[in-house]
Amino acid sequence: MHKAQKEIKEALPKVDVVIEVVDARIPYSSTNPAVAEIIAKEHQKKPVIRLLNKSDLADPETTRLWCEYFESLDDSKAIPVTSKKPEQIKKLLKLCHELVPERNTSLKPINAMIMGIPNVGKSTIINILSGRKLATVGNEPAVTKRQQKIHLDSNIVLHDTPGFLWPKIHNKNSSYRLAVTGAIKDTVIEYDDIAYYAAEYLLQAYPEKLKENFKLDSLPDDVTELLESIGRRRGCITGGKRVDIDRVCKILIHEFRDCTIGPISLETPTMIEQELIEVEEAIRKKAEKDAARKKRRKK
Ligand code: G4P
User: Fold this and answer.
1) Rounded-to-integer distance, Cα 170 and Cα 266, Å
2) What is the pTM of this model?
């Protein structure tokens, strides 16, 4: 991960435009803080385009709010895209030229760098832009490993960077959201844990979608009761006539991921602003505690 960040920093001076791909369902949690830092430092000099990919899976109204939020933050361009509409993604080439107009009359190509944490759909986007199958697209995160230069039409060279995950996730909600969307490998997570997280959120944010998808007349307030109701509806009953909660958890996560429940966003700008305040407070308290412990040890 450090190697990838170092490579990005080294390559950036030669880059004319930075493209960051995020998952439209979790635009904040799928942003690598290191990338955000690099972008913040470089932004004065480079135009930045944020692609909110997989917008077909996200709540359109929340995606609109996210685009507004990002554009107000740092004057970057934020665009919802989906690989289901390749023509939408191809418009990126024109946008690069608009953002780097000095190259329109030059023979020198526009150097664009594309970044994104694994599973946001970066390889899929590169394949669409290049019209070839270049990077391996797979269902396990972190498939793209090598840095590569791709010559696109319209005199643009795309510098692909290896997918790299978060160095440290301070916001525990972000870890859950990354797991719910599948960005964190299924082998390192407990389905029950993330399904409880997702169920609690859906109950509060998308009650109607839950009712409709699982054909429930009413919704309980309690998450376990909700999962039991879903289990009874779907016939997830064990020998002892008890609801098989493990099976229900898998169903809930799979139906969220494949959009059967409907287009859903797991975070909004307002939620993140509040969480960031809480995270900062927790970091501050931890630093105070650590300092006090150090002092005691010294004594
Ligand atoms: P990465 O390079 O960022 O790691 O991601 P990659 O392109 O490998 O895409 C990860 C998964 O996300 C792939 O699904 C891909 O098809 C899917 N995907 C990419 N863009 C979109 C999008 O805009 N909408 C939707 N709904 N899905 C998208 P997979 O099931 O892991 O692989 P595959 O069976 O499609 O090959």
Assistant:
1) 17
2) 0.90
Q: Which CATH class is domain 13-160?
A: alpha beta
Whether CATH 1.10.1580.10 fits 190-292 = yes
pLDDT digits (tens, 9 = 90+) for 17-50: 999 999 999 999 998 877 767 767 655 578 899 9
* 58-117 residue pLDDT tens: 999 999 999 999 999 877 899 999 999 999 999 999 999 999 988 777 788 999 999 888
- CATH 3.40.50.300 in the chain: give the residue spans: 13-160
For the Cβ of 25 lying below 6 angstroms from any atom of ligand 1, the answer is no
Spacing, Cα 294 to ligand 1 middle (Å) = 47
Pairwise CA distance, residues 227 & 204, whole Å: 14
Whether 123 is in the pocket of ligand 1, judged by its Cβ within 6 Å, is yes
CB–CB of 267/177 below 8 Å?
yes
User: Which residue's CA is the closest to the ligand 1 atom numbered 15?
Assistant: 121
Instruction: Please tell me what DSSP assigns to residue 171.
Output: -
Nearest to 268 by CA among 29, 20, 8, 22: 29
139 lines ligand 1 (CB under 6 A): yes
